[in-house]
Design brief:
heterodimer; A: mainly beta; 12 strands; 0% helix; B: mainly beta; seven-stranded mixed β-sheet; three-stranded antiparallel β-sheet
């Protein structure tokens, strides 16, 4: 079955420290992979996506993610976290054929000063 | 700027009421989706629509129906609201197959409370 796992429910990072949010997927075909961010009370905003080519993708707000097919992973990283990055982050996987995206359960990021 | 607009940010309804949640997009997208979001459960797909008058059940369609009479509008209907349908409802739209790499555009969500 197709699925997305975000192993960390909640992560706290000090402001200025680096960040890595984990995402593992199970998908039969070549996947499209996405990271979304949700600020409190808001909808989801696309951070970045991968569907082919360079396995290291750059997104908005200084985020990047690396696709590792051998590990079925698509981890999100940021070298230096800002207090405004505190939010909930969702990893999602989909297929080219227009099916609905499958989302992970999310990771809540808290930033301490 | 492209937009997905959900008609209500907050809604309070009584048990047994018929509830309509409206979603409008201005991007000429064929695909539209309804998800509900609950703490610890992430986003779960209720229904989606590939095009006008077309619909597909998602993972949790029970107690819900949808309507897509026009391309820009996708309505979620709670036939008889129950307290376990208290949730955040998110609408999204997307270009069709082959262009799915562009991902979804989400609305801001409707927080529904059923009392």
């Amino acid at each position: 079955a197709q699925s997305v796992t975000q192993p960390d429910i909640h992560i706290t990072v000090s402001e200025g420290a680096s960040l890595e949010l984990r995402c593992n997927y199970s998908y039969g075909a070549t996947p499209y992979l996405f990271w979304y961010v949700q600020s409190p009370g808001q909808g989801l905003q696309l951070l970045l996506k991968y569907f082919s080519g360079d396995t290291l993708v750059q997104g908005i707000k200084g985020f990047e993610a690396e696709f590792k097919r051998s590990q079925s992973s698509f981890n999100l990283r940021k070298p230096s976290v800002h207090w405004s990055d505190a939010a909930e982050y969702f990893c999602a996987v989909g297929a080219q054929a227009g099916t609905a995206l499958i989302f992970g359960k999310g990771t809540t990021l808290s930033v301490s000063s | 700027d492209v937009k997905v607009t959900q008609s209500s940010r907050y809604l309070v309804k009584r048990t047994g009421e018929k509830v309509f949640l409206e979603c409008v997009q201005d991007m000429d997208h064929e695909n539209m989706f309804w998800y509900r979001q609950d703490p610890g459960l992430g986003l779960r797909l209720i229904y989606f629509s590939y095009d006008v008058k077309m619909k597909e059940k998602g993972d949790i369609p029970e107690g819900y129906s949808v309507s897509r009479e026009k391309k820009e509008r996708f309505s979620l209907i709670l036939e008889s609201a129950s307290t376990n349908q208290t949730s955040m409802y998110l609408c999204a739209s997307r270009l069709p197959s082959g262009q799915g790499g562009r991902g979804y555009t989400f609305g801001s969500g409707t927080r529904l409370t059923v009392v």
